[in-house]
Amino acid sequence: MDCLISSQYELERFMSTCIDSSVTLTIYPLKERIDISEFTNRLKRVEVVGNQECLCHYNDVLYLHDICQENGISFSFLSTGKYFEKDGIEYIIKVVDQERQALKANLNIDWYDIDLFKRIEKSKFRSSFHLKKKDIEYIEKKGMDTIQRHAYDFVHQRLSPSFIPNDGKQTPMKGHPVFIAQHATACCCRGCLYKWHGIEENRELSKKEEDYIVSILIKWINNELERKS
What we know:
Elements: E1 2-5, H1 8-17, E2 23-27, E3 43-49, E4 55-57, H2 58-71, E5 74-79, E6 83-86, E7 89-92, H3 98-104, H4 114-122, H5 133-142, H6 144-158, H7 177-184, H8 190-197, H9 207-228
Parallel strand pairs: 1-2, 2-3, 3-5, 4-6
Antiparallel strand pairs: 6-7
């Protein structure tokens, strides 16, 4: 169920009558600090959108983001609106830049991005990758905990640095299940990460972004194991 609110009062009024346990909450505009802590077990996604009249405070956006991150709720900061405050400075942002500036805040969370996997299915190249018998045997031998550790190592070493001399060629096409998953999910180089996931190039990845990438890789591998079983 979708819910559009702009205040704490509207949130509490809606949630008091809603029985749905999978709510997508859109806050438009965010004109005050809103506490969603009481309803985290019923929220699937929170979206924040600024408008052309109200001042949007970065700390209020960050407050919502942190609650979502701690409780496994997807979060999207879609637009700053015209008036945006951060670190005590108020900015007037052109309409054409409001979405881009929100994306640059790097607050979006979608650990299991359903839209991503739908896009992958439509890509002839991405959807051509699948685990082979030897890959599955390797996973069964090592266990998923080890595979996940390998994924973190590969991501940290080959994707996280701000400068990668061989970007676009750092991920082999075979040799490890994680390599296959990286190509299948466009987590193989910084160029693909930017195109498919909106993660900017030429800067070091954050721990949160590494977690996000690994979660995508492990989900794809689990999907493959289920498909093969």
